[in-house]
Every structure is written in C-alpha cells, then in structure tokens.
Amino acid sequence: MKKYNVVFCGTPEIGATILKQLIQMQEVNLTLVICQPDKLVGRKKELLPPPVKQIALENDLKIIQPQKIIDDFEVIKQANPDFIITCAYGQFIPEKILNLAKIEPLNLHGSLLPKYRGGAPIQYAIWNGETQTGMSLMRMVKRMDAGPYFAQKKVSIEPSDDSGTLFKKMGQAGALLIQETLSLIGENKLPPIDQDETQATFCKNISSEEERINWEQSAFEIHNQIRALAPIPNAFTNINDVRFKIHQARLLTDNDLFPLNRKVHFPGEILYFDKEGIIVQTGSGLIKILVIQKQGKNPSNAGVFAMNSQEIENGVMFGDYLTKLAQKNNQKD
C-alpha cells in the first residue's frame, strides 16, 4: 500500500476527531501536526492545550503551534507533504504553503458547499432552521471555501441538536470522508467537482452582539439561536444590567399553556415559572428556558433558579424592554 506524507492542521475537538482517523489509516504517514497556540480557558484562566495537540502528544507526533503559520514555512516544507489536510484550524493558510502539497491541499468544511461558505457554517445551519447539512472534502484555494470538492457526506439536524452535538456528528462524517476518499484522490481516481457559484451563500463569524437575544423575534427563531450558540458561547439576555446566558430552551405546545393568563404580553416578558423552567413571551409564540446562567454564576436549572431568585418574577421583562416601556409611558404622559 502506498503511504502518503500528511501535514494536518486543526485545533478544536472536531479537528481531533479527524486526526484520530488519520492516525488509524495505514496509508497515512503523519509527518507534522499544526494547531493554534495554547490559550487561557474558563473563569480561572487556566492555560490549556487544544484537543488536537493533546491527541498529537499522546501519539508522539511532531507538532508546532505558530502564531502565524507562514512563520514556520520551512518546517512545513521539511515535512515533505503529499497532502496538507485541514479541519477547523483557525488561521488562513497562505497559497505559498498550500503549494507545498505534492498531491492536494484538502480542507474538511462543515457544510454542503457551495452553501454556507465561511467561518461558522455549523452554527448557522442550526440558526437558520436547516434540517440537513453535511461535510465537504474540498481543494483549498486562495478564495475562502471556493475550491472544487471531491466528496460530500450528508448529516441530519435533529430538533434536539445544538452546535455541540452537531459538531460531533460532523466530525464523524468528516472522518468517514477521509477514510473513504484519500487513497482515491492520491491515485487520481476521484475527480473534483466545481462549485456552482450561483448557489453560493456565506456566513461570517458570529459577533458578540449577535449572541444577544432579540425577544421581538419568533419563538422558533430564538430557539434556533439558543441551539446554535450552545454549548458555547451561548445566547444571552439581560434584566437591567445583569446578564443571563441561556444554555437550553424548548418550544411550547398548547399542552404547556394551561397555567397562563392569555392576555396580551410584551416580548421578553416572563409569564410563568415552575420547577422545570421559565416561560417567556416572544414576538410570536412562547419559549421555555430550561438552563440559565446568571452573570458570575454557574449554569443551573432555570426553574430552580427562578424560585430562588430575586430577579425572576412574573411580569419582569428580559432585554431592554423596561427602558422601552418607560419611554412609551413617558410619551403617553
């Protein structure tokens, strides 16, 4: 069996899943692993290695963690790559480095290209209410996610999925793609397919302000936002100046509505809470918060938190709606 020298670039857990697959493949000779530098994690700011580094160390693989990948051009060149394979590396790879791959520079991208090019395809698939996504194994080119793809594997998005569970599914799909196709690509038996540029869509990285819940949106939209941003960084809202992260919620059915007085309520208004969670009015429909995290505290069951909280009461509003309501009342006066 022909062996291929592979330089792998990845950083988070999904990249570690792909690296584990490459380690198991007899046709792969991992000559170098590249990941982002260690970073401070959590409230205690503990310096931790990324998941890809942990797997590389456990398997005695050579690893580098450049601040800028171009600074280690000579190290990568000495690794003599037939393939450069990336998955969620976190840096733009210059064309000069891509050209070092004797066969192909490959990227595992978390969408069914040409849909959802860009930095957060898995999150936006959930946020936009998609029921299906997938992994694409593509040739890296100078333009972001614009290269032809060699193969794709579809992945279903269940109503219960958040980004955490979907990332795991996507990692497994990506591992199968590499296992099934790498030798075929190396033997020139799997021709690439050009993307249809007329069907291309883009998703930028999610900004911190986009994590804020707009309660004037529908319950469906807000629920998808919460799922898309869980388990990190989480959607958030506030009561006055206190921030609350929302880790988990569910849409309500008619059977959930029996305790409620169905008069007109404002978006963001807390209508009711029980031992399970907190029911909130949205711009259209109701949502029940199940897991909440007050600023500076640990996540907790939302119902238990509400029963022991001074902030959570029926009629209190999440978001900036107290300010808006006061302004409306002042205008009436």
TrEMBL record:
Keywords, ordered alphabetically: Protein biosynthesis, Transferase
- Looking at the record, the residues that make up the Formyl transferase C-terminal domain are 205-306
Give the GO molecular function terms. methionyl-tRNA formyltransferase activity
Q: Which residues form a coiled coil?
A: none
Query: InterPro entries given for it?
Result: Fmt (IPR005794), Formyl_trans_C (IPR005793), Formyl_transf_N (IPR002376), Formyl_transf_N_sf (IPR036477), Formyl_transferase-like_C_sf (IPR011034), Met-tRNA-FMT_C (IPR044135), Met-tRNA-FMT_N (IPR041711)
Q: Name one Pfam family in it.
A: Formyl_trans_N
State the GO CC annotations.
cytosol
The record ties this protein, via Gene3D superfamilies, to:
3.40.50.12230
Note the superkingdom of the native organism.
Bacteria
- In this chain the Formyl transferase N-terminal domain maps to 6-175
Q: What is its EC number?
A: 2.1.2.9
Q: Which first-to-last residue range defines the signal peptide?
A: none
Q: Which reaction does it catalyse?
A: L-methionyl-tRNA(fMet) + (6R)-10-formyltetrahydrofolate = N-formyl-L-methionyl-tRNA(fMet) + (6S)-5,6,7,8-tetrahydrofolate + H(+)
Family under the similarity heading: Belongs to the Fmt family.
Its biological purpose: Attaches a formyl group to the free amino group of methionyl-tRNA(fMet). The formyl group appears to play a dual role in the initiator identity of N-formylmethionyl-tRNA by promoting its recognition by IF2 and preventing the misappropriation of this tRNA by the elongation apparatus.
PANTHER family registered for this protein in UniProt: METHIONYL-TRNA FORMYLTRANSFERASE, METHIONYL-TRNA FORMYLTRANSFERASE, MITOCHONDRIAL
Name of the protein described by the UniProt record:
Methionyl-tRNA formyltransferase
**Native species:** Williamsoniiplasma luminosum
